[in-house]
Amino acid sequence: MGTTAIAPWKQLLLNAMQSNSHLKHSSYFQLATIGINGRPANRTVVFRGFQDNTNKIQINTDSRTHKIEDLKQCPFGEVCWYFTDSWEQFRINCVVDVIDGSNPDPIKLQFCENALQQREKAWFASSPRSRLQYVGPYPGLPSISEQSSEESSLDDSTGPVDAFCLLVLNPEQVDYLNLKENKRVNFTARQSNESEKLWNSERINP
Amino acid sequence: MGTTAIAPWKQLLLNAMQSNSHLKHSSYFQLATIGINGRPANRTVVFRGFQDNTNKIQINTDSRTHKIEDLKQCPFGEVCWYFTDSWEQFRINCVVDVIDGSNPDPIKLQFCENALQQREKAWFASSPRSRLQYVGPYPGLPSISEQSSEESSLDDSTGPVDAFCLLVLNPEQVDYLNLKENKRVNFTARQSNESEKLWNSERINP
Q: What is the rounded distance in angstroms from the CA atom of residue A78 to the CA atom of residue A29?
């Protein structure tokens, strides 16, 4: 059993991303949440990087999708990220912050001002084409016409629109499985002090 | 909106499996459940076919894994199956039957006798090598030595061991997304009569 201040699973994840980077889908993973009906929900999302120099994982999403309601009721998620070339799986249990464009809660004002900057940064980091989906038809509602987001347009300098939402996934437990080496390691955060989370790691049976 | 007695999403899924069959990982998908701690859980599993001529999806698992506890407490799951070559995603919300080797509940005896036959069939359909994992060290427990399932052996004619478990996923809702065609369809079972489930389908915004 080892203890270290730097998340030891993060280097494994960076290595896996590197060794699978020739595959476009290697930046996709599945995010499970609990639906407001109490049943599990699961969908593919796109990795948008770590937040600054932290272990927190960012994804972009549309605030009109069900996962936002899910997360506002139950803020936990589990990432399942399988790398098809290196046969490695990361199961990342996390607490998810939803950063939409709504007014920050005054109590969390300092955090939120920073968060809103992060949201703006994530918006401008995404391609003009992918930004257009956030002004398209309401996701999940019946298609009533052949409306297309192609008809919409956005100036490149326009900031994040209302539907644009940043999700920040804060890992608390990581289950790493390497099928080629038949090796599995469980990483658990010992302390949820934001500034310095301590991680235990333990080799477990696959 | 269309109504039909044959699950209309099943043909789409069979087509996707066919067009991605050159990729070994196309038979893998992610199954989300709700953990006994109330948080979502998510892992990669292997598709083992449909049960007979039904729409029910089979997977094999070890009865010593957490997902069995999860499912005994909350029998719902959501499959997220992303096909990396054709850019199609199936999100399949389902009720999961756990078929382990335990004595059948007398009330469900008729169902269970059939289920135990299914379990035996699934056991013999899996490779001798994959059967060995069920006599290996307890999954998820600390690795206490370099014990390996290689040391174990099983006669080819030996029936399912205690740890071998068949999961039967009974779909109730399917969300189909085709990213190449920018098309999304929601399929919902109108009736949970086992012998003939009726499905509605509706085109929705991606």
A: 10
